[in-house]
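WARN retry 2 of 3 for item q-0093 after timeout on previous attempt; input resubmitted unchanged.
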Amino acid sequence: MLSQIWQNLVHHPQFFAMMTIPFVTAVVTWGHVWMALKMLFYPITFWGIPIKNFPFGGIGWQGIVPRKAGKISGVIVDQALSKLGSVDEFLQAMHPEEVADYISQTMNDNLENLIDEIMNERSQALWASLPYAVKRRIYAYGHEQLPDVMKHLVMELTENVENLVDMREMIINRMEGDRALMVRMFLKVGQKEINFIWHISALIGFLFGIIQMAIFWFVPQHWTVPFFASIWGFLTNWIAIWMVFNPIEPHYIRIPKFFSLSKIFPFIRFEKPHMGVYNWQGGFMKRQEEVSEVFAEIVVKDLVTLKNIMQEMMYGSRASQTRGLIKVHIHQILESQVIQTTLKYGLGRKEFGQLKHTIIDKSIEATMIPMSNPELNQSRADKIFGMFRDRIRALTPAEFQNLLRPAFREDELTLIILGGATGFLAGWLHLIAVFY
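OK item q-0093 returned
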């Protein structure tokens, strides 16, 4: 029977054209899925002619992930990061008393330059006219008072961090400010899944090509070639993405095993037939243990960092509350007898009031300098890495998928439609090149 079918196939007037269908479908599917995945992440910035209120930002394209960085990062925070803990918990784990000591020491080392800068900016004539002995009194008083003031200030900021920092806003601002970071994060976390989607699409395309070849055998109409190529384009993208995230929960199935896979040549190791257990679960979901390490590293080094927390605290939407706390602590120094006698009466009440604002602004700038120190941030990241890793591992499968799923879900329909459109175009070109 099989021999008869083969003879009939060989003698078909378009035998060669029919035989090319599975191979062309596999290559085309592999190509258009690669293009769809690239369009998911690139270009980082809009490429084309920008038009306000036009779909996709104008005539052109910007990667879906960088274009919707704010929305996607908001979903990740709401659905995943918020379940890992609060910003207060993370900051406490960074040992704020050590941070306070480091800031105090750094500012103390540069205190005299800071005082000179502030005074020259507000009243250069007065500062130049003061005897050095008077300046030295002010320097000494600052060195004496600053360590305790800064330590108390940092500890109070830490205690009030939940009121001063909105973690969701902090991460969204970070992602929108560096859209390439969002792309790097998704590629680092999901590179294996992206490669899986790309390569499995060729196999799916080949199988669909065999089905299309059979359809052409029974319905030898040329229109079937581009039509079904479009259908396969739709289905391939949908199936490939579905396989990454579904099933969400593990399903253990007993199956016969005859070989195992190896990372070294010859890659396949034959075994005595036995019953094994296969976990039928989405590819990304299976990698929760592995992804936890990678994602935790990204979070502690790029998102929930000491620098980012303090940046949001000092310059974010709640910065006025932070300035209020700083004002209370700085005024302890400014209201002292040494400063009052030396500066207030030399400057006048109004100018002295403006000096207070300048000191607060300069203090914030001076505080952010040590906060930006890479070694300090790395040491704090090391302290909370294990916490993040273990909590990501403890997420439920439904919660865990939201580390990567939002990137695909945001415009999944666009990717699927794109697969159908490119499939139709490729099918039409295949028809012209081979069937005519």
